[in-house]
Design goal:
By secondary structure, the chain is of the alpha+beta class. It has 3 domains: 4-103, Rossmann fold; 132-201, 2-Layer Sandwich (Dna Ligase, domain 1), CATH 3.30.1490.20; 207-443, D-amino Acid Aminotransferase, Chain A, domain 1, CATH 3.30.470. The chain has helices at 11-24, 40-44, 63-73, 89-97, 107-114, 116-125, 141-151, 177-192, 249-265, 297-304, 308-316, 395-407, 418-425, 428-431, 448-455; strands at residues 4-7, 27-33, 47-52, 77-79, 101-102, 155-159, 169-171, 197-201, 207-215, 221-233, 236-242, 270-278, 284-290, 333-340, 352-353, 356-358, 365-369, 376-377, 384-392, 410-412. The strands form 5 sheets. Strands 13-12-9-10-11-14-19-17 form an 8-stranded antiparallel β-sheet, with helices on both faces. A 5-stranded parallel β-sheet has the order 3-2-1-4-5. Helix 4 (89-97) runs antiparallel to helix 5 and helix 12 runs antiparallel to helix 13 (418-425). The longest helix has 17 residues, at 249-265. The chain is globular. The protein binds ligand MV4. Ligand MV4 is lined by residues 131, 156, 163, 165, 200-203, 206, 208, 232, 235, 277, 287-288, 437.
């Protein structure tokens, strides 16, 4: 087992990884930017190294600084968390070259899944259903038009280097192709440095359902069921749950078996997530695979009882998976609300000093956060400051626990997304499990008269 792990991240996930290391008896090294000198992840780690100025590009994304910190402290491994360098094939390669273990999949698998068109091709070949589409990057607008003609409109132009919705454009008629092709390509170039795009049949208002997979270095691969992640805004998830209200036991078994087979085919190791779009008829299509631990891993932990972070560390150190598919069962229902430091009406970031803090507890509640009284929420990084999770025997109980947990949460000094989440929890469609990726549109900045009426 590793003796010392460096955590190349900050905030709640850095803390989450430190907790896992503690339980495994592994020493921890925190890295931090000048903005995070007093952060909780630094205080809870056994050792810490400052890796640069506040801007992420100068610190948490600085590969040489992070590798140097690992070498100076004698760390055996690096856990990247999520975001920042978590899906950097380059960091994984540099780790190999420097004989520091990267806690994640191989550089080859990270690179494969990072190219969305290549991943789509590979997963189709491995037996996963995909939407009709071009099987690779399109060289010109004319090629895109020809592909769209074969697929049938509407189509979606996607960036091969994509993710996060950037470089995506819906095209409903041939006349829209030219402008959409050029803007998508330009956006992709600006965001990812790669202008390549491909097209796919566009599915209107699908659900987003993702499967958690895990592979070890002896070739064992299992799935830990799915998460429903349709409640999102501008590709930022807001509420996630496990299991998905949309999947029957039979559908889960079928999708799970296909995902395991596909992951095996590419020799997937460590934790991964296979994202699917689900249509109104229950048909599912592979969208992309994320080669990292996800923000929402906690809801899977609550329903399976597996500690995914400890498993990641053990497997990276060469251990076999501590459970087999047959050992796994799912208990009850879990839901997560992401607490963001933002205005719940306008979504504008809301940095500041936490003047008062009272976090929820009681039966079935878990809170992952690095917040504390007097903490400063800086404007430099992602606005997510806490994750509130609720577990219950069924969805109804989980939702009731979440609602009262949100009611008992006090965060003063900044604005948070909690009021918005309370409104979602109270929504009849949400309560009935009628979800889609278009769900949040109803909750977006209310037109002015309505807002006046609300506050009256
Ligand atoms: C799609 C789609 C509809 N049809 N692909 C969003 C981000 C990127 N991962 C792919 N995304 C989508 N791909 C086809 N062929 C709709 C989306 C999409 C979406 C997906 C999951 C969760 C929220 C979403 C919000 C808008 C669009």
């Amino acid at each position: 087992m590793f003796k010392k792990v460096l955590i190349a991240n900050r905030g709640e996930i850095a803390l989450r990884i430190i907790l896992a290391c503690r339980e495994l008896g592994i020493r921890t090294v925190a890295v931090y930017s000048e903005a995070d000198e007093h952060a909780l992840h630094v205080r809870f780690a056994d050792e810490d190294v400052c890796i640069g100025p506040p801007r992420a590009a100068d610190s948490y994304l600085n590969v040489p600084a992070i590798i140097s910190a690992a070498e100076v402290t004698g760390a055996d491994a690096i856990h990247p968390g999520y975001g920042f360098l978590a899906e950097s094939a380059y960091l994984a390669e540099v780790c190999e070259a420097c004989h520091v273990r990267f806690i994640g999949p191989s550089p080859q698998v990270i690179r494969l899944m990072g190219d969305k068109a290549r991943a789509r091709r590979a997963m189709k070949k491995a037996g996963l259903p995909v939407l009709p589409g071009s099987d690779g990057a399109l060289e010109s607008e004319e090629r895109a038009l020809r592909a769209a003609h074969e697929i049938g409109y509407p189509v979606l132009i996607k960036a091969t280097a994509g993710g996060g919705g950037r470089g995506m454009r819906v095209v409903r008629t041939p006349s829209e192709m030219g402008a959409a092709f050029r803007t998508a390509s330009r956006e992709a170039e600006a965001a990812f440095g790669v202008p390549d795009v491909y097209v796919e049949k566009y599915l209107e208002n699908p659900r987003h359902v993702e499967f958690q997979v895990f592979g070890d270095h002896s070739g064992r691969v299992v799935h830990l069921g799915e998460r429903e992640c349709s409640i999102q805004r501008r590709h930022q998830k807001i509420i996630e749950e496990a299991p998905s209200p949309a999947l029957s036991e039979r559908a889960r078994r079928k999708m799970g078996a296909l995902v395991v087979q596909a992951a095996r085919e590419v020799r997937y190791t460590n934790a991964g997530t296979f994202e699917f779009l689900l249509d109104a008829q229950g048909r599912f299509y592979f969208m992309e695979a994320n080669t990292r631990l996800q923000v929402e891993h906690g809801v899977t932990e609550l329903v399976t009882g597996v500690d995914l972070v400890k498993e990641q560390i053990r497997v990276a150190a060469g251990a076999r998976l501590s459970f087999s598919q047959g050992d796994l069962s799912w208990r009850g229902h879990a839901i997560e609300c992401r607490v963001n430091a933002e205005d719940p009406e306008t979504f504008a970031p809301s940095p500041g000093v936490i003047s008062a803090l009272s976090l929820p507890g009681g039966p079935g509640i878990r809170v992952d956060t690095a917040l504390h009284a007097d903490a400063t929420v800086t404007p430099y990084y992602d606005s997510m400051v806490a994750k509130i999770m609720a577990h219950g025997r069924d969805r109804r109980e989980a939702l009731a626990r979440m609602a009262r947990a949100l009611d008992m949460t006090v965060v003063e000094g900044i604005k948070t997304s909690i009021p918005l989440q309370r409104r979602v929890l109270a929504d009849p469609d949400f309560q009935a499990g009628r979800l889609s990726t278009a769900f949040m549109e109803r909750f977006l900045p209310a037109p002015k008269p309505q807002r006046l009426a609300e506050s009256a």
